[in-house]
Design a protein that fits this description.
Elements lengths: L22 H26 L3 H16 L1
Length: 68
């Protein structure tokens, strides 16, 4: 609804209000749960898979133990 003295105008005014869909909140909740799980997996990534530098150090230590 335009206000008096408003200098902005619609290029194309909305025709109708979006219909209420009961599945929208369910879809949003599902996406938020999936995003939270993804963030938790990223946080645990370093525990399961060491960094390349740590893996190289472990290989050199193992080679030193095997050699000596």
């Amino acid at each position: 609804m335009p206000l008096s003295g408003d200098r902005y105008q619609w290029l194309r005014a909305p025709v109708r209000r979006p219909e209420a869909n009961p599945l929208r909140p369910v879809a949003l909740a599902t996406m938020l749960v999936a995003a939270a799980e993804l963030v938790a997996r990223v946080d645990r990534y370093g525990e399961r898979y060491p960094s390349p530098a740590a893996a190289a150090m472990a290989l050199t230590e193992r080679a030193a133990i095997d050699a000596g």
